[in-house]
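[Q] Does anyone have a clean structure-token version of this?
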Amino acid sequence: MTATLLPDVSITLNQKRWACVLDPTLVLSDYGLPLVKQLGEWVELWVVREFWHMLDNPQIYVQQPERLLSQPYREMSSAQHRNLSQQIIRTLREWENLRANSDRNTWNIHFLADVIGESSVPPGTDANLIWRWESLAQGLDSYLDQRSTRSETLTLAFRDLAALAAARPACILTHRSTEAAQLNDPPAICETLEQWNITCHEVSAKDAIAEVERNYLRNLLVHAGLSKLLWSGLNLVVLHLMVPAAATISPTSQWDEELAFSELNAELEDAVGLSAMDMMNLWDGAQGFWYTLP
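[A] Here you go.
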């Protein structure tokens, strides 16, 4: 009898990494740098372009840190304002030092810069991401003049955040203060989205799909060595945006990597074939869904 010998078979499954856009208020918290440095090895992390503009003008925010506070000034005590201001100043300086003294390729983060060719995107990223992001961001511009409880800086950052999360697509990692968590208030980004007619729904704690995601993210945080952030008070929130039109945006012409976004804006209507009204309509039917990570 002849035995059939089968060679050893080794199977490796490469799971696609989660894509997450970090809320600038989270990036500027005490938890921001550890998340980027450690979680970025496990998750495809993005920051918004407006965040780099903050670092380009640090003296403005060192003198007026309240412009970067997610909680309206009038709702804070003087002690809260002082503590948060000091924390933001410290974090800005840490980020400024990181950018000045390290290679951006070691930061574990991706971003769209002012010039397309200077952006940092994962290998194989769909080139149409640029057009989807810019179109979606312009679609929110008409809402920016409406009264908001946020500073102009954070309003622009939240616009970029929503547009990038929809264009990638990716979930948004944000957070809540201890006080907001106790009151079960939505994260600040949700309050702004509601002003832009994008309804945000809290996902039930009993939702089975959310529980699968929670367990997956918990495992990622453990593997990244970040359990201590949750124990020390990080009230992490995951926000998903459902924007039906986001996947349909594509350019009708090629773009140049050296083209600045300001130049891209001038050509966008012809290249994408969308009028200003069409861009606004890209957000028709958009909704947000958020849950906490206890």
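[Q] Thanks! Anything notable?
[A] Residues 78-101 form the longest helix (24 residues).
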